[in-house]
Prior knowledge:
Layout: E1 2-4, H1 7-11, E2 17-20, E3 24-25, H2 28-38, H3 43-46, H4 48-54, H5 64-69, H6 71-76, E4 79-81, E5 86-96, E6 106-119, E7 122-133, E8 139-150
Parallel strand pairs: 1-4
Antiparallel strand pairs: 2-6, 3-6, 5-8, 6-7, 7-8
Amino acid sequence: MREIASLEELKQLVGQEVAVSDWVEITQQRVQLFAEATDDHQWIHLDVDRSKAESPYGGTIAHGFLTLSLLPMLMAQSIHMTDVRMAVNYGLNKVRFPAPVPVGSRVRARMTLLEVEDIAGGAQIVWQVTIEADGSSKPVCVAESIVRRYT
């Protein structure tokens, strides 16, 4: 866990990789629950037998948006800003899914601080987040995440 004590300390980290999360396993149950929550029941995510037989991935894969939805959790387990009263997700600039996430694999995130801009009551922070799967040569998700933090 990377502890950041102040906005001034955070600003000194622009351009640097600030934190790397722990590994998180992507289970079939997690994929199933995401499918139920989003009504995305495509067979490449849920049908284990068909995916083994017909999918180019050799098995089921996680939804790209499931991978993206892990961002807040991966960031929260990696970075703690002690002088923050509240932080909110403000949006995304770019999102890409360069490689699939096979069910049963583990993912983690690397966070690089791109920008810190003062706003009323706090700051707007832009992070380059690269999510990688254990054993994959390509990232599984690359996103610019915008967070607003208030003191």
